[in-house]
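Hey,
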Amino acid sequence: MTAPAAPVLPCSTKELADTARRVREHVVDMCAGPEGGHLGGAFSSTEILTALYFAVLNTDPADPADPDRDRFVLSKGHAAVGLYAVLAERGYLPTAELADYGRPGTRLMGHPVRAVPGVEMPTGSLGHGLALACGFALGQRLDGRSARSFVLMGDGELQEGSVWESAIAAASLRLDNLVAVIDRNGLQLTGPTDGKAPMARLAERWRSFGWAVRETDGHDPAALVEHLGSAPWEPGRPSLLICHTVKGRGVPFLEGRPAAHYVTLSARNHARARAALRAAARAAATAGEDTVTAGRPA
């Protein structure tokens, strides 16, 4: 398939990294509210969401219903705070609205709903997102459109049988306009994912289902843009990118801990988290920057 080029957006690694840091700051602020939030999974997927919305997806905040747009489904809907922050940074909603997260009457609920511009489907019941993205991809093909459909899943979510039914269907239908991403942070609410349902040889499993598979560092903006922007990788095969990530990435006292899954930050821990993000920003400011090309090859 041939897809239209993505819109011109910030394309340097530094700009993407700076956006990711702002996203984390928004998430920390939301998780310091009375309802708290799923910080761990939002932070492990921050660079993935940032790369998608700022360098890969063909979408326009001024026209979120454009029939030729790329679709994105956040199957791990509990990471909604991360999606809201990215959508706000991208211009789908005012950043000031993020302060309403979790409060009575808000549209920014604990799981994404279609009342939020840029949200294609309500999600959160794990295991359904890949099937939804398959439907979008098939519909795009039947309509003769060149757009792609993307879905972000958690690794704990792979314990759902519906994921594998959808994987079979996508390969059987030869949906090469479908791109799935796994946030492989190795943790779920109750502990290490491999301690609950071992996922050894995960890439080989998906290849055996007929998918084109790659693996990358899920916190490397340049690598993410390179892989996601160039899909489909093999004609007639859906694409899967396994992103190796760290739950709670960016806040040292939460990194790699199951306790980061859902937090309500106290005033003290809110300040600690903000200080850690500011320190990371200062360190990055002294480092060099590389450039990456936004979008995908013509």
